[in-house]
């Protein structure tokens, strides 16, 4: 499985024998390869011809996501796993090819909140009428069509009979990929919403934090650990000092849960198993939202990952009387002889809660 940040499908739309489409797609993927590497993107060419999709033959409206045919389920999985698309399309009779319209019509939610860029080709119009046509349809599916497009005039790209777009086409293609990745990142919270669980505040939702949430987590923990620093009279607290890169690192090693509302990270917690114990930490709620039960809610979410564990463990500053009282109310007890002293010389209290009855 790829560890790249995003997976972008390059949809090759023409299916005719000896079509120009595959040559356009090869030029595009070769041109974009260095940028794709820098942007941490997997570019995956998908020829619509290889999908063997018949004309739409599903009984239910695609919005219901009930698919009776294997070809639809396969296509659904492919599109659902993508973060964005680049369509390589000819213009047929001033419109998009029927293959593209059909492939779009087969699915519903799988397309939603993902950016779509276009590389069109044709005669005088360079395929731009096909793009306009497609944009009208794709926006209905909640796809987000990009402003940048690559438009290739066939007469200018086939000077010696072989496909050779000019250098400025390559530059526009790179710009388009950069725009695609920027938009895909911004849209990520909307896409992930399906896997989220509703949070305790209206419109809020919780979902697993991923490494790309590093900047949000860094801001939240820096503002939340100021009180800890004051209470314990130290600035040597990792949560205050970690860089976004360091946060990104622990986000891969821990199971973090974020509570979000409209793109803002309201609270978080992290957990990971060690032997029979589940270690919980970095429980934080934005200062303006304290006293509404969000911390308790997040703690219970983290504790839910402890099935099969015999003990829950966490720690807090020895002088964090508010936190200590909170954890004790939630059933945690300070561990005997566990007030260890950190490198900074400031005390930390470890607390545990047994899960075995
Ligand atoms: C059915 C059909 C309709 C076409 N209509 C247009 C058109 O409206 N505008 C245009 O610029 N070229 C049009 N062309 C010419 C195509 O741009 C050209 O044949 C191109 O190579 C088609 O892409 P493909 O080879 O990947 O199928 C049409 C070609 C076909 C086969």
Task: Describe the protein.
The structure is a single chain. This protein has 357 residues and is of the alpha/beta class. The chain folds into 2 domains: 6-194, 3-Layer(aba) Sandwich (Rossmann fold), CATH 3.40.50.360; 197-354, Gcn5-related N-acetyltransferase (GNAT) (Aminopeptidase, 3-Layer(aba) Sandwich), CATH 3.40.630. It has helices spanning 21-38, 48-51, 70-80, 98-105, 128-140, 154-157, 167-192, 214-224, 226-232, 238-241, 244-253, 294-303, 321-329, and strands at 6-12, 41-47, 84-90, 115-122, 144-153, 197-198, 205-208, 255-261, 264-274, 277-285, 311-317, 333-334, 340-341, 347-354. Strand 4, helix 5 and strand 5 (144-153) form a beta-alpha-beta unit. The longest helix has 26 residues, at 167-192. Bound molecules: flavin mononucleotide. Flavin mononucleotide (FMN) binds at residues 14, 16, 19-21, 90-94, 122-123, 125, 154.
Helical residue percent?
Answer: 25-40%
How many helical stretches?
Answer: 13
What is the CATH C-level name of the largest domain? Answer: Alpha Beta
What distance separates the N and C termini? 40 Å
CATH H-level homologous superfamily name of the largest domain: Flavodoxin domain
Shape: elongated
> What is the CATH-assigned architecture of the largest domain?
3-Layer(aba) Sandwich
Give me the strand/helix succession. EHEHHEHEHEHHEEHHHHEEEHEHEEE
- Spell out which ligands are present: flavin mononucleotide
The total strand number stands at: 14
